[in-house]
Design a protein that fits this description.
seven-stranded mixed β-sheet, 36% helix, 3 domains, binds NADP nicotinamide-adenine-dinucleotide phosphate, Quinone Oxidoreductase, Chain A, domain 1, 13 helices, 410 residues
C-alpha cells in the first residue's frame, strides 16, 4: 500500500513534467524524492495505526497481541492465561512538549509477534528524532505521529540488548543472543523488534556503542554509499561532524577511502580529527570555502543557504541534505531539502535528500563493517533511563561529542 501511494504520486509528477517538456534526467531525482517522501508518510501513518492498536491494548487488540488470549494465533509464543502480567519501566510522554512532559511509567511488558524478538534492553541511542517526537515539532510530522496527542507514548528507536524471547517464525536469533538494531519504544526495559531489523552485536562493541548504530550509523552509511556513491580518493565534507550522525559519517567516509573535511565548532576540533578527518573547518572562525573543492557534501547541521553549500561543491558534485535544526516550526529543515530537490532539476550539481530508513540490507552491511576494527561508534555521554530528560537537554545543548545513549540495564 505504501509503495502504491509513493509510485502513484511519482508517476503523476513525471506525467506533469513530461507535459511541460522537461528533460528526463532532471525529472528522475525529484520523482524519486516524491516517491520516497510519500512512501515514508504512508508508511509512518500505517505504522502509527499499528502502534495505536498496540497502545490501546484492550480486549479486541489483545486477541492478536496477547498470546495469553485463547484466540491468539498458534504461531505466537504460548503463555498460560494464568501467567502474571509482567511490568517494566518505560519513558513515556503522554503529550507533546518540552522535557517536562517526560515520565517514568510502569507498563505491561510487550509480547513478541511471530516475526519479532523480545529484547531485554541494555542501552538505547538518544537522537534528534526523539527530540522531535517529544516536542511534536516540526508540526508537519504530526500528520504521522498524532495531530494533538502522540499516538505512541513510549519514545526510542535505537536499541541494543539481549534476546529474552522469540516469536514462532524467528530463525536468526535465540534466547540469550546479544543484538542491536531498530525498533520503536526502546526507552524501556523491554521492547519488541522485527527479526530483520536486528543484527548480532559485534563482540568488540559495548552495548552502549552498539545502541548508536541503527539510526545514526545507517543514516550516515546510506548517505555516503547509496546517495552520494562515494569513491576512494574523493573529497568529502561533513557538516555537523562532531554530532551523532556526523561522527559516524566522518569514520565511514574514511572507511570508503575518501579525504574528509569535518565542519564543527571549536570544542569539537580535536574530537573530529581523532575520528579520522583529514582537515577541519571550525565554522565559528572560518566560513565554508567557495572554490568548489568538495566532490560530496553531507549536511547534518546549520541549515546553511543552498547557495553557500553549492559554492563549496564541485561543478558536478553531490550535496546530501540529511538534517538541520534551524528550519521553521511547520516543516523544519525539510523546507530547504524540498527546495534543493526541485532546484536540482536545473543544475549540473546533484542536490539530494537523505531519508535514512533502517532497512535490513544497510543494517547488515553496517554490522559487517563494525565486525572489523576501524569504525568505532563515538559515545559522548550516557544517562540512566530515569534521567532521559537530562539526556534530552544535553542533546540540544550541542555540547556532546558524538552520540548520547540511555543506559537501561547493566
Ligand atoms: N535524514 C535522516 O534519516 C536522519 C537521521 C538521523 C538524523 N537526522 C538529522 O540529522 C541532523 C543531525 O542529527 P544528529 O543526531 O547528528 O544531531 P546532533 O548529535 O545534535 O549533532 C548536530 C551537530 O551539529 C553541530 N552544529 C550545530 N550548528 C552547526 C553549524 N551551524 N554548522 C556546523 N555544525 C553545527 C553541533 O555541534 P557544534 O555546533 O558544536 O559543531 C552538533 O555536533 C538532525 O537534524 C537530525 O534530525 C536525519
Amino acid at each position: 500500500m505504501e509503495y502504491i501511494v509513493g509510485i502513484t504520486l511519482a508517476l503523476i509528477f513525471c506525467g506533469a513534467a513530461a507535459g511541460l517538456g522537461m528533460d528526463r534526467d532532471r525529472v528522475f531525482y525529484p520523482a524519486v524524492a516524491i516517491a520516497v517522501t510519500s512512501y515514508y508518510l504512508a508508511f509512518a501513518v500505517a505504522d502509527g495505526r499499528h502502534e495505536l492498536r498496540r497502545d490501546r491494548g484492550g480486549a479486541r487488540g489483545r486477541a492478536h497481541a496477547d498470546p495469553r488470549s485463547r484466540r491468539a494465533s498458534s504461531a505466537e509464543p504460548r503463555i498460560p492465561m494464568s501467567a502474571p502480567v509482567m511490568l517494566m519501566k518505560a519513558v513515556v510522554r503522554p503529550e507533546y512538549g518540552d522535557t517536562g512532559v517526560l515520565r517514568i511509567k510502569r507498563l505491561e511488558r510487550p509480547v513478541p509477534q511471530k516475526d519479532e524478538v523480545l529484547i531485554r534492553v541494555m542501552a538505547a541511542g538518544l537522537d534528534r528524532g526523539q527530540w522531535h517526537l517529544m516536542t511534536g515539532r516540526p508540526y508537519a510530522m504530526r500528520l504521522a505521529t498524532g495531530l494533538t496527542q502522540p499516538k505512541q507514548q513510549v519514545l526510542g528507536m535505537d536499541v541494543s540488548g539481549v534476546v529474552e524471547a522469540v516469536g514462532a517464525e524467528v530463525t536468526r536469533f535465540k534466547i540469550g543472543d546479544a543484538v542491536f538494531g531498530a525498533s520503536s519504544r526502546t526507552f524501556a526495559e523491554f521492547t519488541c523488534a522485527r527479526e530483520d531489523q536486528l543484527c548480532a552485536k559485534p563482540e568488540r562493541l559495548s552495548f552502549e556503542q552498539a545502541a548508536t548504530a541503527a539510526i545514526s550509523g545507517v543514516t550516515a552509511l546510506i548517505g555516503l554509499r547509496d546517495v552520494a556513491k562515494v569513491k576512494p580518493g574523493q573529497s568529502v565534507c561533513v557538516i555537523g561532524a562532531g554530532g551523532g550522525v556526523g561522527s559516524w559519517a566522518v569514520q565511514l567516509a574514511r572507511h570508503f577511502g575518501a579525504h574528509v573535511t569535518a565542519v564543527c565548532s571549536t570544542s569539537k576540533v580535536e574530537f573530529v580529527r581523532a575520528l579520522g578527518a583529514t582537515s577541519v573547518i571550525d565554522y565559528t572562525k572560518v566560513p565554508l570555502p567557495t572554490d568548489g573543492r568538495f566532490d560530496v557534501i553531507l549536511d547534518f547541521a546549520g541549515n546553511r543557504p543552498l547557495s553557500v553549500l553549492r559554492k563549496a561543491l564541485a561543478p558536478q558534485g553531490t550535496l546530501v541534505l540529511g538534517g538541520g535544526e534551524d528550519g521553521d516550526r511547520f516543516v523544519g529543515g525539510m523546507g530547504r531539502t524540498l527546495r534543493a530537490v526541485l532546484w536540482s532539476m536545473f543544475l549540473k550539481q546533484r542536490l539530494a535528500m537523505l531519508a535514512g530508513f533502517v532497512k535490513p540490507e544497510p543494517l547488515q552491511a553496517l554490522a559487517h563493517i563494525l565486525d572489523q576494527p576501524g569504525v568505532t561508534p563515538a559515545v559522548g555521554r550516557t544517562f540512566p533511563l530515569e534521567e532521559a530528560a537530562d539526556g534530552m537537554r544535553a542533546l540540544v545543548s550541542n555540547r556532546v561529542l558524538g552520540k548520547l545513549v540511555l543506559r537501561v540495564a547493566t
